[in-house]
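FORM 7B: Structural annotation worksheet

SECTION A. Query
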Amino acid sequence: MTWKNNHWVKFLEGYCKGKNQIQDEYVRKVAKRLGIEEPLDIQFPWQQEILSKFQSNGNHNLIILTGTAGDGKTKLCRDIVRALDGDDFDEDVWNQNSYFSTGERTVVKDFSELKDDKNLLIRELIAILDSKYVPKPILVAVNDGILVEELENFIKNSSHEAEQNTAKLLKEIIEDKINLGFSECEGQDLVNLINLSKLNAKENMALIFDTILDHPGWSHCDGCTGKENQSCAIYNKYHLLKTEPHIKENLSNIILLLQLNNEHFTIRELLNLATNTLLASVPKPKALRIADMDAGVGTLNCTSMSKIEHTAVFASESSIEVGFWGMNLGAHKMRNNRPFSEINKLGFGELSTNYWDRLLRHKTERDFMIPLDVNNKLFEARLIDGADANNELWDALMRRSRMQLYCFQNGDENAYHLQRYSHFGSYRENVYDSLSTSDCADDVNTIAMIILALNRVFHGRYISEGSGRDSLFIPEKGQGSITPISIFHGEDIRERDIVIRSIKNDMSLSGARIEPVLILEIDRKHEVKMSLTVELFDYLAHVSKGAPPNTTDPRLYKKLLILRSKLSTLIRENRRTETYSIQDGEFRQVILEVQNG
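SECTION B. Predicted structure
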């Protein structure tokens, strides 16, 4: 047997490169050159919904696909047109043009590439609003902000007042739907804006992994020395993710956590992340290596893998966490290049608990093994192959072992204690999962925890659980900080008036991301909303357990004081204020006696 050169692996390597190598047209050219008849074809569930809207025989639809660069707008347009045209689809014509307009339909695969056709398209959209009728299916792909910018230019340069007014209305509708998810302007129902940035990155990540792992190209590894001897790091990681799906789920949950902190990951970034997880070499920084090995390359292919000596040791060093955290790219890219920079901000490997460090040392108490268990004797004798374990080696072993504990554990409720936001498990169960099946997350203990934490932010950490969990007490505007024993004027918001919901868009698709928002209802006409991120939830959970509000996270503390100010303004405008006292951490209403002298 010999090492084989699998073109499928070479094709995947392209996704680990720069942005140009992951553009749709380039990817298909590479696949054709490598003789891959079936390139990576990810069938997202929301694609079929958009296709159904576009080819509706009843009412024609104007669909605007928006999002950031790399969200998959161009590929989605291509897939829709190819599904409609079938055998008549011409790949060369598609690659050479961006504007396709006939009497039957209009398709713009990239609005930014248009020149003179930009105004033609804008006038076509204006005519729809004027006539209140969509004469044919129209599909436009455009990055966030570009269409709005071009509409502004069109309005400035137009000499017709009626045309300007309709263009302003169109601009307002698009801005509303991008920023708010909906619009109340006249004619908004004619404009179906689908923001691909609002799709669930966690589900996209899982689907990308599945599509890569299920591809028939892996069958070309059959008969290869690396596969048969289990000495190929690439195939070993493929086999691991294929046979241990909980590892893939654990990695995808990291993307979910970041998404719930308002981080957006494009399809392009997720492809980069998934392929680098499989093809990463060994850590580039020496401070992250356990064995003194360097392949000389950041990402592997069949050729470079066949030249590796001591493949068994190399395969153990090139483990699953190396690529997902971007260790093969070097310390600078780990800190500064997305998506790896966002993942590394979570502090995996640097944070732990006694629970996990005990399991790390006593592997017999676990129901799973990790690759670095081969060095478990370091924890006992502080020796590896007869060499004294220095501090750098010890740090590398601890950090990567903790990462592997997270990756390989299966459903451990303490798993999220290995990173910065230790209350993510509670957040996911009581907020995210609830909103996945219901319009409202109404767990009583969660609402009570939030109320107590906000009371401690607004009035000081000495507020007791006895009276601080049922109502949120708002001081009157301008009163400033509250001391442990004080009297203040204000009002309270009862527990029943504080809810957690998800932001709703008027064009929700399967796989749309859930964006929890905390709503404080002042009265029937007034409410204050605040995005309930994992970061904010974790801060509130710590404060509710006694952490000082002002030093636990000064930035969030100041943000919540601004929230207090907004609430105070509304309270003062819409309600009479009451007088309360705080004594021994308890809120008590004060009855003022008026004496006639």
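SECTION C. Observations
The mean pLDDT is 83. The CA atoms of residues 6 and 395 lie 36 Å apart.

SECTION D. Sign-off
Analyst initials: ____
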